[in-house]
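Section 3.1: Structural characterization of target chains.
Under the original work plan, the team committed to producing a structural model for every single-chain target entering the pipeline before any wet-lab resources were allocated. The record below documents one such target. The sequence was received from the expression subgroup and is listed exactly as submitted; it comprises 442 residues.
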Amino acid sequence: MTDQPHPHHPAPELFTWEFATNPYPAYAWLREHEPVHRTRLPSGVEAWLVTRYADAKQALADPRLSKNPAHHDEPAHAKGKTGIPGERKAELMTHLLNIDPPDHTRLRRLVSKAFTPRRVAEFAPRVQELTNDLIDRFAAEGSADLIHDFAFPLPIYAICDLLGVPQEDQDDFRDWAGMMIRHGGGPRGGVARSVKKMRAYLADLIHRKREALSDAPDLLPAGNLPGTPGAASPSAPTEDLLSGLIRASDQGEHLTENEAAAMAFILLFAGFETTVNLIGNGTYALLTHPEQRALLEKSLAAGERGLLETGVEELLRYDGPVELATWRFATQPLSLGGKDIAAGDPVLVVLAAADRDPERFADPDVLDLGRRDNQHLGYGHGIHYCLGAPLARLEGQTALATLLTRLPDLQLAGDPADLRWRGGLIMRGLRTLPVEFTPERR
């Protein structure tokens, strides 16, 4: 890996295991010395890293930076190394993270109805039910791995319910998703195989739901997206997201089967790992900042939600689930942060660096759950702002509040220095989070 050194200060080494544990000092160096920095990634792809808040916000909304990998001026060795492994071969490229207007506008409009504040509020009781059920499984044991036992399954089951994946199939999704977030920790080619299996399953599920809807065309009004969990059999039409997409497509919205499958795939992929990391990173931050945790527990005990809401936003800023925004590619030469970006160059906005920029945030390295001026970039900015942000916030707030309330003496089991972070470029999350607590009586 080659980094361009500053004339007086050597550039920090990036993408090592030590860097993964705590990337923030390296990002601080880049912000100060080379805020738009060209580097060779572990995959061999060369890209620009954008680390200052103002530059990051500009880049996230710049129409000259395309999401479509077709604009990548890639050498042969970099083919297919800029997205999710296996998505090309599985014909899952036509999703919101890979397309620009007008197709992006059309597809986002179709699915946005599922994530309005009202729809998410209607889903809140189901999220609370899932949260309670998962904690019930380990509360009497006195110890748990909060990633494996809680943070990972919660968003999987929630997004499966929203999509309309039958309950009897949801554990398969959990297995495939588990392989997808190992980031090299599983068997070689395992991610691509999981993507292929998920693609085949989604194609079959779309086919079955389309048949069911054609047998009962009046059961689901056009565009009526989920308000209730979609855990019923696919032979019975339900008010789930996938059925809503099929209905909209069949009534003139021009959604191809590949687009429907890709949409379901990316909602699952983008909608679960971000929340796994939000819950995991957020819990870890609270357990290692006892004064802030005590303030939140006091607020929850008083029946207040204000500190919980600002607290989740601060956890997103302080050590958020998405370290780098997904890939962008220059469609024409442009200047960013004083550097000339050539057409075809990949650009990666480092959200984790921008959200600790002292030019934008006072005391950026301090965790302050009551922080008010907190326009973090954890969910992006511009037309690609995260569609599922309301749902992720709901899941994060519900998970953290319920954990702290039900397990009030929750603490880390072991030395924080022994924790390991998952390797990978885009996401930031713990492999495990062992905890202990006083067991609940059964």
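The CA atoms of residues 216 and 237 lie 8 Å apart.
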